[in-house]
Amino acid sequence: MKVLVCGKGGCGKSTIVVLLSKEMAERKNKVLVIDSDESNIGLHHRLGMSKPEDFMNYFGGKKVLFEKTKEITGRWKLDDLPKEYLSAKDNIQLLSMGKIYEFGEGCACPINVLSSRLLEVLDVGDKEFLIVDTDAGIEHFGRGVEKGVDSLVVVIEPSRDSILLAQKISDLGKQLGKPTHLVLNRVDHGSEKLLLELIDKKRVEAVIPENRDVFISGLAGKELKISFEGIKQIADRLESEKRKVQAKLT
């Protein structure tokens, strides 16, 4: 199962990616986290790992990615990924597509192209999950990154902009024929009630409450070690989807 986590900037995508990855690993799955956000510089801290070398360097760097990604052919398995570009802890591995480092070096388009192509050719096994942390907004839809995934998780914070973007992403997911799951993040009782009045609550798979421990660990750049019932619920849903897909293939 290949899952892409998306949403408005600052809504908590990386937090959900970390929590979901750890939950899936606890369930004895092998998890690959793909960091496709060129501006996210701290995901490895939240996973308790060292920073992996940018995967774009495997192909010669950002300047040649447009051409080099055309050479990615055939089908890849998780074990085919070069180990020198992976950080690992327990059942979780982290692969970082690439970052912006210098003023004027150009846009992140080549990184998105690499992400899109890799997601298309990567196959995952019975007890494997691939979870993608995307850049903010919806540019990755324009670049076709979602084409190679099985399911979308949209993170919504208590703000009008976040709700509107989630509705747009849901429409795009419908165009693609991809299951789209909504996760309410950083809510209290009042904001949860209001959000459920403003969106299709039947599509809300999980609710993650405002939590000071999450805030403090993020501020300190420490590994996120906490569990939420809502994360277990979205993990249940994704595992159920995976079983249905496997059943159709057999």
Structural class, by secondary structure, is alpha/beta
- Stated plainly, the CATH topology is called Rossmann fold
Mean pLDDT: 93
The end-to-end span amounts to: 16 Å
Total beta-strand segments: 10
CATH class: Alpha Beta
Work out the count of structural domains. Answer: 1
Q: What is the overall number of helices?
A: 9
* Strand numbers in spatial order across the main sheet: 4-5-2-7-1-8-9-10
The low-pLDDT segments are none
Question: What is the 3D shape?
Answer: globular
Give the second-level CATH assignment, the architecture.
3-Layer(aba) Sandwich
| CATH homolog superfamily | P-loop containing nucleotide triphosphate hydrolases
Order of helices and strands: EHEHHEEEHEEHEHEHEHH
The radius of gyration is 17 Å
Question: How much strand content do the residues show?
Answer: 15-25%
Q: What does the main sheet amount to?
A: 8 strands, mixed
Describe what you observe in this structure.
It contains 9 helices and 10 strands. It is an alpha/beta fold and 250 residues long. The chain has a single domain, classed as 3-Layer(aba) Sandwich (Rossmann fold). It has an 8-stranded mixed beta sheet with strand order 4-5-2-7-1-8-9-10, with helices on both faces. The chain has a two-stranded parallel sheet with strand order 3-6. α7 (189-198) links the parallel β9 (180-187) and β10 (204-209). It starts with a strand and ends with a helix.
